[in-house]
């Protein structure tokens, strides 16, 4: 079966790696260069997008920021999963909040902003600090402002007005202000839904962010009550979207109550641990779901942590001297802060995981890989 993925980055690469043993052949459409590529080798084909759509049995996406005309072309082929509405919703925080309201799933109090008066209202009604985000085009903490006091309103508004003015009638730019949530931790849930509506959900993942970017995830902690809330939110949202494929939801955990932060209609960085931690990874399950195959087992096989490799030219080979450590390289050109690869660390129990993470700090210095030792210490404390 031939699968066309919109987007030619690391997620397409890992979906392609997972699809090969299932006899699923993947080509990727690079939205930036408008070229059809091999997702692993980067080889560029002369095929047009229209031809690639026609050659494909199934079309899917590795990210949500896809031009509307491309989405429409793909949808018109009736081969596109998870569908235009799901991709549009994941790519626009205002649509995301509307979906949460409709499904009755809780999120941070917010105010949509298109004029300065809305910002002033948000500062007054939601309280400070405020987290202000562009509704479209944000990722890895980019396109965000923090408003701590009213004296910043004029300055921040001038930058916000610039963003709003750069929108077009077809692709308007809007902004959202959210109450800054004093969360205890950030968690996410990843799951798959197939064409018949069957759902398979992975164990909850706990995520560490540094400067707005995911640095480390841990899966396998026992979190029954919180996990039940996350699974409920997943099922409501996936069913409402009539979703097909893997869907990720990020949450803030505030004293055991979950608030949704955002929804990603795709495989997600906080699910990379499933490559070693589960029988069937998120990448394989996404490929299975869109190809109409049965969903795979999402139960925990091994407690696993994932460490992001940000901006480094390579993964230190010494990490492979430790048992149950695997390296995943994306084959991209290094740039400061860019997601270059990740390291998965599996363990027999939380103490073992803590030991392994501590040992890894010999090769992964705090400056380049923040938070590993802190996580190792937290795992022992429970
Ligand atoms: P990504 O797509 O990589 O997950 P993003 O750019 O879409 O990131 P968010 O996930 O919305 O952005 O925000 C990045 C981080 O900023 C969050 O993981 C969280 O740590 C912090 N943050 C965002 N919104 C809030 C909020 N309302 N209260 C407190 N912290 C927040
Ligand atoms: Mg996020």
UniProtKB/TrEMBL annotation:
Q: Does the keyword Disulfide bond apply?
A: no
Question: Which GO MF terms are attached to this record?
Answer: 5-(carboxyamino)imidazole ribonucleotide synthase activity
Keyword terms = ATP-binding, Ligase, Nucleotide-binding, Purine biosynthesis
Q: Any idea where the ATP-grasp domain is?
A: 97-291
Which Pfam families does this one have?
ATP-grasp, PurK_C, RS_preATP-grasp-like
Query: Which pathway features in its UniProt record?
Result: Purine metabolism; IMP biosynthesis via de novo pathway; 5-amino-1-(5-phospho-D-ribosyl)imidazole-4-carboxylate from 5-amino-1-(5-phospho-D-ribosyl)imidazole (N5-CAIR route): step 1/2
Enzyme class, first EC level, given as a word: ligase
SUPFAM superfamilies, alphabetized: Glutathione synthetase ATP-binding domain-like, PreATP-grasp domain, Rudiment single hybrid motif
Q: What's the catalysed reaction?
A: 5-amino-1-(5-phospho-beta-D-ribosyl)imidazole + hydrogencarbonate + ATP = 5-carboxyamino-1-(5-phospho-D-ribosyl)imidazole + ADP + phosphate + 2 H(+)
Q: What's the Enzyme Commission number for this chain?
A: 6.3.4.18
Binding-site residues, ATP: 93, 133, 138-144, 178-181, 186, 209, 261-262
Looking up PANTHER family in the UniProt record yields: PHOSPHORIBOSYLAMINOIMIDAZOLE CARBOXYLASE, PURINE BIOSYNTHESIS PROTEIN 6/7, PUR6/7
> What quaternary arrangement does the UniProt entry report?
Homodimer.
The job of this chain, per UniProt, is described as:
Catalyzes the ATP-dependent conversion of 5-aminoimidazole ribonucleotide (AIR) and HCO(3)- to N5-carboxyaminoimidazole ribonucleotide (N5-CAIR). Catalyzes the ATP-dependent conversion of 5-aminoimidazole ribonucleotide (AIR) and HCO(3)(-) to N5-carboxyaminoimidazole ribonucleotide (N5-CAIR).
Similarity comment: family membership = Belongs to the PurK/PurT family.
State the name under which the record lists this protein.
N5-carboxyaminoimidazole ribonucleotide synthase
Q: Which organism is it from?
A: Pseudoalteromonas marina
The gene name on file is purK
